[in-house]
Design goal:
It holds the Pfam family Aminotran_1_2. The chain is an alpha/beta fold. It is built from 21 helices and 14 strands.
Length: 512
């Protein structure tokens, strides 16, 4: 038996069942033997294996391999990759705003802050950046130390000021939590909703196509993502009949539907919902007794004639007793500070005893990072003195560039046979539909992969353009899409679109 044990490979061990593993552990000597790992694919929480996150799935993995091959001299029809698979603006060329980084530089290097007056005289930083850094330093004390679990109070007050300017109503500072990006806030709320003692499987309604954060968290928390289909033919609008149908179908199966996610502007759909639509959605959530999760991280990225309107403002205008959790982030908008990991979550109309539990949950993770917290303050309170002109210029340059690149994407894709693309209304994404030929679908099925992934993989290996198959976001059965950003530089976008147009034409002819 001992000899047989010694011959077991790690791969074979990972395939054994729990009873077999237990027997081997109890019978093996401690020395001179191959130890069996406690954590394997067989013994890990199986919800971890089931959770998927398409934005960093097989396409990006293949892209990373191609990147290494290119660096080692491999020949492809292109010389570099164009990453349009993830909303990561600074990775693909966006420049950080000067004011924010000047303040952060001074705050993270106290010796520079002591010399701030000299730096201002030399023209290296603005006087306003120096003043803001001094103010924050006095309020924040040591930014390398833990803060209150829910974040610096003075930054949370600044968030309240921002909401009051934006919506006309001011939340209580106790309702504001500073988080490591919006994702942490979403996880916090969903962990509270995912109760298992309510007499049925818990359901969270989310738009289809959806941002995979919601499906992944639903899987990890053993609840059900109740998808409601957006109306693609109506610029990816939310329709009340679709909400009603999804809610009714889930309820009939015994699912206890508890939350409604609205992503506006949309990811991956690129829509910006109208105020009239949002009012209907708010009423639906109120009538069904749901918690409303308002994912509004793209509120600065608006391409429609109608401006962004927050869900919170509608709830307050209608004076509804509706529980709302609103999320915002540094990662998007015109800042693109994805790696800084800063954001906020605002809770409204929640039971005070539940708020105590949210504070406890946040306390388990201590506090969000302090650089991110201070950056939230910089986001919601932009400069207003000598730094304002440059700030406005840099901000507008980012937004104008996004608008121009969205137009290039819209024009190029809409002109290609077999592709339909709704008007891009916001965020930084497009979700075009592809009418794939039957032969292409059959070729994909023969390889055991989704047809839209088959298409996107060939696009990657032919053009260097990295996008994400629509199947990773869910879609109406029988339709195929891909999600693309329009974040790379104008030059790269123009080159990528020209290359992609040729690829698509050749692909459609090859499989026609």
């Amino acid at each position: 038996m001992a000899v047989a044990q010694m011959r077991l490979t790690r791969r074979a061990l990972g395939a054994l069942g729990s009873s077999e593993l237990g027997f081997l552990r109890s019978s093996w000597p401690l020395k001179g033997s191959v130890r069996c790992k406690c954590l394997t694919r067989a013994t890990i929480n199986q919800k971890v294996l089931e959770a998927e996150y398409a934005v960093r799935g097989r396409l990006p993995t293949r892209a990373a391999a191609i990147q290494k091959e290119l660096a080692n001299g491999a020949k492809y029809p292109f010389t570099e990759l164009v990453h349009c698979n993830i909303g990561n603006p600074q990775q693909v060329g966006q420049i950080p705003l000067s004011f924010n980084r000047e303040v952060l530089a001074l705050l993270t290097a106290p010796r520079l802050l002591e010399k701030a007056a000299d730096l201002v005289k030399l023209g290296l930083i603005s006087a306003e950046a120096a003043e803001r850094a001094k103010e924050y330093s006095q309020k924040a004390a040591k930014i390398g130390a833990y803060t209150d679990s829910v974040g610096f109070q003075f930054v949370r007050e600044e968030v309240c000021d921002f909401i009051e300017r934006r919506d006309g109503n001011r939340p209580d500072v106790s309702q504001v939590f500073l988080t490591n990006g919006a994702s942490e806030g979403v996880r916090l709320v969903m962990s509270a909703l995912a109760a298992t003692h309510l007499g049925g499987r818990v359901g969270i309604m989310a738009p289809i196509p959806q941002y995979p954060l919601y499906s992944a968290l639903s899987t990890l928390m053993d609840c059900e993502l109740v998808g409601y289909y957006l109306d693609e033919d109506n610029r990816w609008a939310v329709s009340i009949p679709a909400l009603e149908a999804a809610h009714e179908e889930a309820t009939k199966r015994g699912v206890v539907v508890r939350g409604l996610v609205v992503i506006n502007p949309g990811n991956p759909s690129g829509n910006n919902l109208t105020p009239e639509t949002l009012e209907k959605v708010v009423t639906f959530a109120h009538d069904k007794g749901l918690v409303l999760l308002a994912d509004e991280v793209y509120q600065e990225n608006i391409l429609t004639t109608h401006p962004f309107k927050s869900m919170s403002s509608i709830v307050n205008e209608k004076q509804l007793d509706l529980e709302v959790a609103s999320f915002h982030s540094l990662s998007k908008g015109f800042l693109g500070e994805c790696g800084v990991r800063g954001g906020y979550c605002i809770f409204e109309n929640f039971d005070p005893q539940v708020m105590e539990q949210f504070v406890k949950l946040k306390s388990i993770e201590l506090c969000s990072n302090t650089v991110g917290q201070l950056s939230v303050g910089l986001m919601v309170r932009p400069p207003s003195a000598d730094a304002a002109a440059l700030y406005d210029e840099e901000r507008q340059a980012v937004l104008d560039s996004l608008r121009n690149k969205a137009q290039i994407l819209q024009k190029t894709l809409s002109a290609l046979p077999g592709i339909s693309l709704q008007e891009i209304g916001g965020a930084m994404y497009a979700f075009p539909q592809i009418k794939l030929p039957k032969a292409a679908i059959e070729a994909a099925e023969a390889q055991g992969i989704a047809p839209d992934e088959f298409y996107c993989m060939q696009a990657l290996e032919t053009t260097g353009l990295v996008v994400v198959p629509g199947s990773g976001f869910r879609q109406v059965e029988g339709t195929f899409h891909f999600r693309t950003t329009f974040l790379p530089t104008l030059e790269k976008m123009q080159r990528a679109m020209a290359s992609f147009a040729k690829f698509h034409t050749d692909f459609m002819q090859r499989y026609a």
